[in-house]
What we know:
Largest sheet: 7 strands, parallel
Bound molecules: 2-succinylbenzoate, magnesium ion
GO biological process, one term: menaquinone biosynthetic process
Number of strands: 13
Structural class: alpha/beta
Radius of gyration: 20 Å
Oligomer: single chain
CATH topology of the largest domain: TIM Barrel
Mean pLDDT: 98
Shape: globular
CATH architecture of the largest domain: Alpha-Beta Barrel
CATH class of the largest domain: Alpha Beta
GO molecular function: metal ion binding; O-succinylbenzoate synthase activity; racemase and epimerase activity
Strand order of the largest sheet: 5-6-7-8-9-10-11
Distance between the termini: 16 Å
Strand content: 15-25%
Protein name: o-succinylbenzoate synthase
Pfam families: MR_MLE_C, MR_MLE_N
Number of domains: 2
EC number: 4.2.1.113
Helix content: 25-40%
Amino acid sequence: MRIVGVDVHRCHLPLVRPFRTSFGSEYVKDVLLIEVRTADGFVGWGECVASPQPDYSYEFNDAVVLVLRDHLVPRVMGIDLRPEDVAQLLAPVRGHPMARGALELAILDAYLRSTGESLASYLGSVRSEVDCGVSVGIPDDDSLDTLMAEVAVYVDEGYRRIKLKIQPGWDVAPVRAVREQWPDMPLQVDANQAYDRHHLEHLAKLDDFGLLLIEQPFAEDDLFGHRLIAERMATPVCLDESVLSAANVEALIDYGACDIVNIKAGRVGGYLEAKAIHDLCLGLGVPVWCGGMLETGVGRAANIALASLAGFTLPGDTSASSRFFARDVTEPFVLHDGRITVPTGPGIGVTPIPQMLAELTVARTHLA
Ligand code: OSB
Ligand code: MG
């Protein structure tokens, strides 16, 4: 297969409510969608999980466009390739996993459309629907009542697991309140690196609430801190930002810093590396789940395909499109009994609806 054209569509999707984490608030999803065209006339779509600001990661959308234009796209243009070759072709470029993952997904989608296979089947799917969790931000007004009302909506909608964002000053009290209201709901927390090891004893109080896991309490490079907290707490420690590749996750597990892995394909450079991490963890008996980055239907479709692999034994941040967006670029993903059906069509199984894409696009950049 040869790639003969690449375009980046920058879209703005208003959020149905602000999404606040320990590193800031988002009101609009500002997203890059990558469109590739092949010599045979197939089109593929990928989504980049970078934000407009370098907050969750050092990558950010303007930089993604530049690294795609000047360093990544030129390495895949016009040559005969298969999706499995893309990582090798891009390997001389250091870093920028979100940019390379988005390009790889678009190429993978185009390739699978040409063969007629779904991404789920290609990755090794074992189920036709996935259990869905939802990530609940810190309320903009710092109010427990606001949090409880939001969680109640998700519980009524049927979500199978609740994840609360925490930060210093917003941890034990919200977790206690939600746990008291919903004693049997699978519950977990995500700190997005907001603590350091001086907070160990404070965080250990969360052991009282039967959490599935605590996600990324410390800085992404504080591997020793994560090992200390894994030793100190009964609650399993899950890493997100620290997980960069299969090689590094193997080291994190061996070192004792990581009990559970949040797999985000964009953060690790694409769905093939994500599958490699899944395969490694399955072999080691380490549970994994599929993280989210407020994806549009393009990235959500691919995440749901990934989450249908055997090792994804915990519900993911694979919520319905309506959790974030009133209008999406694709047909929305909907929840049935707390689950989403895995797309079966060729490639990612969904395509941006031209009219929605036109309405939501704020800029289009022709890269090649
Ligand atoms: O840490 O998991 C995270 C969203 C943006 C940046 C980081 C994270 C998140 C989420 C997932 O919590 C939200 C979702 O897509 O459902
Ligand atoms: Mg996280």
